[in-house]
Amino acid sequence: MNFVAGARISDAAGPVKEQFDMAKKEFAKFVRPDGAAREAEAAKTTRLRALRLAKEAEIAEEKKDAAIREAAAKLAKAELRRRVRAPQPATPAGLT
Questions:
Q1: Does 19 or 40 have the greater pLDDT score?
Q2: What is the C-alpha separation between 47 and 53, in angstroms, rounded?
């Protein structure tokens, strides 16, 4: 007989073995959903997909608008920086 901390292994294994046997008997049973449940799940999935696609389209539109505004602001800023030289008065050919 083997001893572990003053007790025999066979005594200590009793409750563990019972728990293992009980757990072994419990099986997760998959219940196939009926037609109504499947249709409800499909409708929910379709609704969520439509919401996600709408949100993605809105975000893409916002990014596009932001890029257009940024390009317009950059162009306006560049136009403000552009300097036009004043026309130089014509000098007579003999005076230099």
A1: 40
A2: 10
**pTM beyond 0.70, yes or no:** no
Residue 5, pLDDT > 60, answer no
Cα 3 to Cα 8, 11, 18, 32: the distances in Å are: 5, 10, 20, 50
Which helix (H) or strand (E) element contains residue 7?
A: strand 7-8
Chain-centroid distance, C-alpha 52: 11
43, β-bridge pairs = none
Task: For residue 3, list its beta bridge partners.
Answer: 8
Q: How confident is the model at residue 1 (pLDDT cuts 50, 70, 90)?
A: very low
SS3 45: helix
Q: What does DSSP assign to residue 61? A: H
Q: Which amino acid is at 31?
A: V
